[in-house]
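Entry 14. Structure prediction run on the chain below.
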Amino acid sequence: MSALIILIPIVLLIIVAVWSKDTFMSLVVGVITAYLILEKMNPIAAFNSFSDGLYEVVTDEGSQWVLILVALFGALIALLSDSGGVLGFSGLARKTLKTRKQTMIGTWILGIIIFVDDYLNCLAVGAATRDLCDEHKIPREMLAYIVNSTGVTVCAIIPFSTWGAFMGTQILGAGVDEGASVFSVYVQTMPFVLYGWLAVIAVPLFSLGIIPLFGPMKKAEQRALTTGEVFSPEAKAALIELPDEEKAMEGKPKRALNFLLPIAVVVFYTIWLEDIVIGLFAAILLCFIMYLPQKLVTVVGFFKSIMRGVVDMAPVIVIIIFAYVFMGAMTELGLVDIVIDAAMKSMSPILLPVTIFVVIGLLSFGTGSFWGLAMIAFPIVIPVAAALGVNLFVASGALISAVCFGGHICLYSDTVILTAASTQTTPVDYFRTSVPLVMVPFVVAAIGFLIVGLIM
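Output returned:
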C-alpha cells in the first residue's frame, strides 16, 4: 500500500477538525476512513475491524492505566477545587504575579518545576493557574500553549523524569554504551534534545513579546484583551457549567497548602515508586485526612467530589479511547514501517540527524504515537547511525526531539487532550492556535540538527 493512501485518514482528520472545530467528530472520521482503507472499502469488514480495535484498546493494560490515571486526576482536581486549595494557591500566586506578563512567566516556571511527569504537568498546572490567567485576560488558548510547552518538552530534557527513564532505557536497549547506566546515557543525550530546549525557551519569548504573537493566537489574544472573553465560542459551548468556587468557599479558609501538599505527594511517589497512579491514590487519601478536620468537606461531600471529578473527565476519556483506536489503525496500515524504511535508505551521515528529526517528528504528529513510536524507531535508527559513523547520542537526541514534537502539537495526542481538559479549551482550539508558534522551534531545531550533522 502506498504512503499517500495511508496518509488519507490523517489528512481528512485534520481537515475535519479545522472545519468543524470538533475533536471527537474529526477522530470518528479518521477512524472510519482508516478502517475502510484497511479493509479495502468493505464496510462490514471495516466495522468488525473497528470493533476488534476498540476491544483491544479498552482491554490493553497500557490504555487502562492511562484511563485510570485520567479519572484519578479528575477526582483530585475536583477535591483541590472544592476544598478551596486551588483558590488558596491562586491567592498566593496573586501576591507575586501582579501583571499579565508576570502571570504567563509564572505559569511557565511552575510548568518547569513540575517536571517529573508530562501528565501531572499538563493537568496540575492548567488547573492551578487558569483563574489567575483569566483575571489578566490571558486567552485559554495561550494558557494551553504555555502549559503543554512545559509538559512533554521539559520531561524530555530532564533525566529524572518519566520520559528520561523510558527513553534512557530505549537508548541502552538499542545498543548505545551498554556498560553505562540509564541516567548517564540520558545525561549525554540531553544536549541534543534540541527541540525540547527550543520549545521551552520559546514560551517566554512569545509571552514577553520578544517574538510577537501571530496567526490565530494573535486573534485569540486580541479577543481576550478587547472583550475580556478568554474562551473561544467553541470552548465556551463545550464547557460544563461549573459552580462558583468563590461563593461555595465563602466563610471557609482558602489555604494554598491544601493544594501544594497533595501535588507534592504525587510528585514524591512518582519519583520514588515510578508510578504516578499510586501517587494519585496517596494524594486523594491525604486530601481526606487534611480536609475533614478543617471542615472543608463532609465525608459524603468528599466522595461526591471524587465522582464529580471522574464524570467531568468522561469526555476526555472517550476522546483518548478513540485516539488510541485511530493510532492502532494507522499502525496496522503500516505507515511507520513504510516511512522509516524509505527515509533510512541511502542516507548520508551529514543528513541523518535532521532526517531522523523531521521524518520521525512528522510520523509522531501523524500517528499521535510517542513512546510506542520511539520503541519501534530506536532499534532501526541507532544501528543505521552506528553504520554511518554518526554520533549515537546525536541520533538519540534527534529521535527524542521528534517524538517530543508530536506530543507538543498532535491534536489527538493524550498530552494535548489532557492539556485542553485542564485549561478548559478544546484540542482543536489548541492545535489551531499553537501550530504556528510550535513551528518556530521545529524549524530552528531542524536547522540545528543539520548544523550538528555537518560539524559532527
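Residues 242-247 have pLDDT under 50 and may be disordered.
Filed with the rest of this week's runs.
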